[in-house]
Write a structure and sequence with these properties.
about 725 residues, alpha+beta, seven-stranded antiparallel beta sheet, seven-stranded mixed beta sheet
Length: about 725
């Protein structure tokens, strides 16, 4: 369902943070374009839904059905962020234009945000004194009126007619949003496609209306036993920010993983399978094929790692460490160097190695501020402030699933491509992804000699003889020997340890925590075996690369990559160093970003002429002979005039009067009678930079008489105001 929202007044969708002189800022993306986080929409829409229920006398249980309840109750809808109209096109155009030096200085974060926002001030009044309280002045950045936002409401479960009708009326009932909504800010108009008011009321007030039951496509699978194991690649594109929580940070901050763990994908596909097959999640394990696919290692689901332009980036091996020092782009294999040679440090990032070059990439994330709101008080709850870190929209991840070729074909056909939700806060703002399949291919594994390096791509969970998780060289070596069927020596290791804990939906609780080797951990090992066992061990090494090492490999843990050797030294490179730069169109006229760029250029031109007016006020103290009264009269004439000719006529009325004589004596009369300063400044070198952009915008400023008058008016008002200020300072 499409939801639309228009700001009707200045609106403060607060970010919870300030910026420079701004005490309260709006939520802006990385380019300076505003958006409305879906949590704000969800909270406001839920409150509006409760109001509609109260007005119509409807039981509030339907609200929990839609939005979910506190604790473990998951609602039927998920709301995406609301973005301005044509957001994707504007964002794409801005990113491309910023690669060109002609545009870069115009399309800054602050200038882009100024197109959509404005600055307002407010203060508190001391009721006893009748004046502003000391230190109470606050500066706010707010959204401008008449901005149009669009978004989507996704059904995680099918909605009944009554639920759709209630949402429709709740959107119409939603009139204000954001900070200070009860003090003049935040007036909006909200709606989404659906029923008319009369039809929605009829459905909601019809007590005999039966809730529509959820329908699932029930399928029967008839598959043969296991055969040839192959690999099926899957792709995940982030549509709204995703938050895969990890165990770091303090209580009020939640940080995200920057890859998608295999157990998350496994849970997603298992949930999808349950719905399609019409199973009950509490008894799904009794189904033959659910057991085979998800519990009996029929499908081995590996994690999805960041992908950029077709390249997959894996956790960087900890044995490849960066030499300390500013701007040093050299990486060394510490397994091949003496520790005293160079001072190095590991890098926690994702990388792609090609020859002697190493490329790094890390998905972009954003911190989001949230608070808990008391509906009755109409304000946030004390202490209910928290931060979420989430992977940004448009990031891509690639992973693979191993299994019998027949299994993979059936899963691919059964699920097809789909949208779904993963991670935390799936019903508001976070977690929407697009899931698509790649091709089914042969599994690949390289041949190895008796020495090689094992690189952990996901946490490696190992258990000791008592069945408890233990991380040690001894246990690691034991697992390797049992898997390969031969003696193993661990020569070197660079490893980190991390806790592993999952949330199990069926249990409605977290699983017991395991201690594991962290992704990136690296081990240099040597095989000790008889030549007669060579072929058997060689085959086992291939299986190790495919299936992984340790426990819970079916959920994506224990995934490894094996290198026969790593280079002694790598040079860090940027991914775009090997690509030709993309050409940018020499015109932006008619594009979606054109109004933004035109506004910025106009604003910069007016700022330029304001500065020129200031410099003129500075140039000669003879202007100080003009009285403040006359300066105020001249400013008023300019402000009241709508066109250049009107202003000239007003000023010419001073001719022959004392005011006109004063202006003539300071040699300002002729300039003020002319007023038009555009022809004077357009040939100045500093002004020429604007003409290059104006041409690309197809903006004929020569015939834009309104803006030329705006230039002259801005110049002279700046001159008059600055002159008054300089006089005041001179008197002191």
């Amino acid at each position: 369902m499409h939801i639309s929202l228009q700001t009707l007044s200045y609106t403060l969708i607060g970010s919870g943070e300030g910026a420079g002189m701004i005490d309260s800022d709006v939520v802006l993306d990385e380019l300076g374009i505003p958006y409305i986080p879906s949590r704000r929409i969800k909270g406001a829409l839920k409150e509006s839904t409760l109001e509609v229920c109260e007005m119509l006398g409807i039981a509030a249980e339907i609200v929990d059905s839609l939005f979910g309840s506190k604790g473990l109750g998951e609602g039927k809808i998920s709301i995406a962020n609301l973005v301005i109209e044509d957001y994707e096109e504007i964002k794409k155009d801005i990113k491309e234009l910023k690669q060109d030096s002609k545009y870069r200085n115009f399309l800054t974060y602050q200038k882009i945000s100024s197109f959509f926002t404005t600055i307002r001030q407010q203060t508190a009044i001391d009721l006893d004194k009748g004046i502003a309280k000391e230190s109470s002045l606050r500066t706010l950045r707010v959204l401008k009126p008449e901005l149009n936002f669009k978004g989507e409401i996704y059904e995680t479960k099918p909605l009944s007619d009554r639920e759709k009708a209630l949402l429709y009326l709740a959107a119409l009932n939603l009139k204000r949003i954001g900070t200070a909504r009860n003090r003049g800010y935040g007036e909006i108009s909200c709606s989404f496609e659906g029923l008319g008011i009369e039809e929605a009321l009829r459905i909601l007030t019809n007590k005999d209306e039966q809730e529509r039951r959820e329908e699932f496509r029930t399928k029967q699978l008839e598959l043969s036993g296991k055969g040839c194991v192959k690999s099926l690649q899957y792709h995940i594109k982030v549509i709204s920010p995703i938050l895969i929580a990890k165990q770091v940070g303090e209580q009020n901050s939640v940080y995200t993983e920057k890859h998608i763990p295999g157990n998350v994908v496994r849970g997603l596909l298992a949930h999808k399978f349950i719905n399609i097959m019409g199973l009950n999640k509490e008894t799904a394990h009794l189904d033959k094929w659910f057991w085979e696919f998800f519990l009996n290692r029929g499908l081995l689901i590996k994690p999805a790692y960041p992908a950029k332009e077709g390249e997959v980036y894996y956790p960087a091996p900890l044995c490849l460490q960066k030499e300390k020092g500013e701007d040093n782009r050299n990486f060394y294999n510490v397994f091949k160097m003496e520790r005293e040679e160079k001072k190095t440090k590991p890098v926690a990032a994702f990388c792609c190695m090609k020859g002697e070059n190493i490329y790094f990439y890390e998905p972009e994330t954003t911190f989001y501020f949230h608070n808990t709101r008391d509906r009755k008080r109409g304000s946030s709850i004390d202490g209910g402030i928290f931060y979420y870190e989430a992977v940004n929209a448009d990031e891509e991840f690639i992973g693979e699933i191993l299994g019998d070729e027949e299994y993979l074909k059936e899963i691919k056909k059964l699920f097809d491509s789909f949208t779904a939700f993963i991670g935390r806060s799936k019903t508001a703002q976070y977690g929407l992804i697009k899931f698509t399949w790649g091709e089914i291919k042969e599994t690949a594994a390289a041949d190895m000699d008796d020495e090689f390096i094992i690189h952990a791509l996901s946490p490696i969970i190992l258990y000791n003889d008592q069945g408890y998780p233990e991380v040690s060289e001894e246990i690691f070596q034991k697992y390797l020997e049992e898997f390969l069927g031969g003696e193993v020596e661990v020569i070197n290791q660079c490893a980190k340890i991390q806790p592993v804990e999952n949330f199990v939906g069926v249990w409605a609780m977290k699983s017991p925590a395991d201690t594991a080797y962290a992704p990136g951990s690296s081990f240099e090992v040597r095989l000790i075996f008889d030549e007669t066992d060579y072929e058997n061990i060689k085959e086992k090494i291939k299986e190790l690369q495919i299936y992984g090492l340790g426990e819970k490999t079916e959920a994506g843990f224990g995934q490894i990559r094996i290198y026969e050797t790593l280079e002694e030294r790598y040079a860090e490179r940027e991914a775009n160093e090997d690509r030709n730069s993309i050409g940018i169109e020499e015109t932006v006229a008619g594009s979606k970003v054109s109004p933004v760029l035109e506004y910025i250029v106009k604003t910069d031109i007016l700022a330029f002429v304001k500065y020129k007016g200031l410099k003129k006020a500075e140039e000669n103290k003879r202007y100080w002979q003009i009285s403040n009264h006359l300066l105020g009269r001249l400013e008023g004439m300019l402000l009241e005039a709508e066109i250049l000719e009107d202003a000239r006529k007003r000023i010419e009325q001073l001719e022959g009067k004392n005011a006109g004589d004063v202006l003539d004596s300071v040699k300002l009369w002729d300039e003020l009678c002319e007023l038009n300063i555009y022809d004077e400044i357009k040939n100045q070198a500093d002004f020429q930079k604007f003409f290059k952009i104006l041409e690309l915008l197809s903006w004929d400023i020569e015939n834009d008489h309104d803006f030329k008058w705006e230039i002259s008016k801005t110049y002279w008002i700046s001159f008059l105001r600055c002159l008054r200020l300089f006089k005041k300072q001179g008197d002191k």
